[in-house]
Design a protein that fits this description.
alpha+beta; 6-stranded mixed β-sheet; 5 helices; 16 strands; globular
């Protein structure tokens, strides 16, 4: 009823507003805001100030702990200086280096009981470091199936090979001193610092007789038989790099005390590496 008795001056004022005085009254009120004002007026509630909308996305429904985990993972990914690719094509030669990140310390001789032998503890773990011509560390997953690492036994000072035992006359016999899985395929694992790398693990290696020895790890590339030239040449494996462990001792079985698992061994076991998980020692 109030709108029907409005004076002509009011209509004239509205005409002036339509003619161009609209800017002097501030920003226009959208139909949505007008409806909100009408509802507040009818319910006798004071109008609430509208919050300024920003271009930021709404917060994630995840908890702060989950977002913290995601943020930590992203930081780890950004901090890695390793380039991982399914195939890296380059005409320049690539460099290979083996670094033994876990050296064996001791084991017990198994003599003629090869099936009940005790493995070296802790197991030897070697890391493969591949670098491109610019010096950047790379992981070429297309090449990993053709790379293997092989173990051989050396004397304590590393001067002579000890793969086979000798009899009382000094002649080499057919019995191997080093026994077990002497060839390892590459494993893609993360170290204790969270960095991804390529590792060769030897969890099942024993020595037949007591003494002091070293281990030599040789990185080899297997021939690719999808290459016609390799088939014609009859190519064999190529040694790319070598590394030696620190000297370790082989004790008589009655004097042997197994050491505790290392943090690196435990962490690789958690990631699914096939290693021997020895039970904890009882004091």
């Amino acid at each position: 009823m109030l709108l029907e008795t409005a004076s002509p001056d009011v209509h004239a004022s509205s005409g002036v507003l339509r003619a161009g005085a609209r800017q002097s009254l501030g920003p226009m009120i959208s139909p949505k805001d007008r409806n909100k004002l009408s509802i507040n007026f009818l319910s006798d509630e004071p109008p609430r100030a509208e919050t300024i909308t920003s271009s930021r996305r709404p917060s994630s429904p995840l908890s702060h702990r989950a977002r913290g985990v995601n943020r930590l993972a992203s930081l780890l990914e950004r901090s890695e200086d390793v380039q991982v690719a399914s195939e890296i094509s380059s005409d320049q030669p690539r460099t290979y280096r083996l670094e033994i990140v876990q050296h064996p310390d001791r084991t017990a001789e198994f003599a003629n009981s090869a099936l009940t032998r005790l493995p070296l503890a802790p197991p030897l773990i070697a890391q493969l470091v591949m670098r491109d011509p610019s010096g950047r560390t790379v992981i070429d997953e297309s090449e990993l199936p053709f790379l293997v690492a092989q173990l051989s036994l050396l004397s304590g000072d590393g001067s002579s090979s000890m793969d086979y035992s000798t009899d009382s006359r000094g002649q080499v016999s057919r019995e191997r001193l080093l026994y077990g899985n002497l060839v390892s395929s590459p494993h893609l694992l993360r170290n204790l610092q969270g960095r991804r790398g390529v590792y060769f693990i030897f969890p099942d290696v024993g020595v037949r007789q007591r003494g002091r020895f070293q281990l030599k790890v040789a990185l080899m590339r297997l021939p690719r038989f999808d290459d016609p030239e390799a088939l014609v040449r009859g190519a064999s494996g190529t040694v790319l790099a070598e590394a030696r462990s620190l000297p370790f001792d082989v004790y008589p079985l009655r004097d042997y005390v197994a050491p505790a698992q290392t943090p690196l061994t435990q962490y690789f076991l958690q990631q699914g590496a096939r290693m021997i998980a020895s039970p904890p020692r009882s004091l």
